[in-house]
Amino acid sequence: MASIPPPTAPVEPRDPSNRWPWIALIIGLVIVLGAIGFFVLNRSQTVNLSVEGTPTTNPVARASSVSPSPPPTLVPPTLPASATLAPSATPVPAPTGTPAPPPTQPPAPAQPQPTQPPAQAAPAPAAAGATSAPTQPAQPAPAPGAPSAAPAAPSPTPFAGQVASAGGLGNTRSDFDAAYGPPSGETPEHLVVYRKNAFEYHVGFAPDSSGRAALVVLLPQQNQTLTLEQAQAEAHKLLPKDAQPPNQTPEGNNQFAVERYTSQTLAQALPPEAFTANNGQPGQFLLVYVKDQQGRITRVIFGPGNDPNALINQGR
């Protein structure tokens, strides 16, 4: 007969309350690992801020923004007061004026020291017997600021040729002698008298009788008179070659008529005193036609200056 096995003891189910701590521990680890992973992922996508460049925002933040307002402007960090980004202005140095050197006083002239007579010595050789020249006192040097004497103005070069045609105003004594022949006399005013054809010429030379003609008086002989046109035709032959203006209109009154001219060669040929004596400038000269009561010309006077009355008195 088969034996009946002994009955097995019933297995009691385990208490489920012993598994909850492990489940809670596993869930906590999962949460911690998820937080760490989320942190790592978000860290790789963070915005890199740069002060110099344009800020780039997180794509997630840009996508999640709802309002159309412009992105916020990044403000650079405020630096401490000691670190100033703006360049400081460097002051421009002001020019310093150089002081003028004080005027130096001219050195006083050195006074010559009295030389002592040499002691009597043996006679020197003949080659060394020459005595030295006496020393001159030192001349004082001019002060640096003292004005130097102005150089004298150069004198104009005298004219060497003939100013006018033969026997004209400003020509030499030899030219008059060749044009009119030897002089026939002299007037009480010491004018040299020449005669040729129907005219008489009274000439005053400057600075002396062998100089140049500074005064010429043209007179018709035998007390004849001329019309103004006749007198002009004869007188214009004796004008300087460079007389200006070439065609002068006479001016004057019922006693005389005047023609005014200038000549550069005459200014070089005659001394300046010849012009200033008759209130003129070098180069100015007059042609004066003296009239009688009927208005006819009795004499024609050539002379330097600008005073017709003075010329009339000189050419009587």
Query: Helical element count?
Result: 7
Q: Note the run of SSEs as H and E.
A: HHHEEEEHEEHHEEH
What's the number of extended β-strand segments?
8
Please summarize the sheet with the most strands.
Answer: 8 strands, antiparallel
Alpha-carbon distance between the two ends? 212 Å
Mean pLDDT over the residues: 75
Spatial strand sequence of the major β-sheet: 1-2-3-4-8-7-6-5
Taken from the alpha-carbon principal axes, the silhouette is rod-shaped
Helix content range: 10-25%
Range of strand content: 15-25%
| Radius of gyration based on Cα positions | 63 Å
Poorly predicted runs of 5 or more residues:
82-86, 121-134
- Which class best fits the helix and strand makeup? alpha+beta
Give a description of the structure.
The chain has 316 residues and is an alpha+beta fold. It has helices at residues 20-44, 59-64, 173-180, 228-235, 264-269, 272-276, 308-314; strands at 185-186, 192-196, 199-206, 212-220, 251-252, 256-262, 284-291, 297-304. The chain is 21% helix and 16% strand. It has an eight-stranded antiparallel beta sheet with strand order 1-2-3-4-8-7-6-5, sandwiched between helices. A hairpin with a 3-residue loop joins strand 5 (251-252) and strand 6. The longest helix is centred in the N-terminal third of the chain and has 25 residues, at 20-44. Residues 82-86 and 121-134 have low confidence and may be disordered.
Features:
316 residues; eight-stranded antiparallel sheet; 7 helices; 8 strands
Give a brief outline of the structure:
By secondary structure, this protein is of the alpha+beta class.
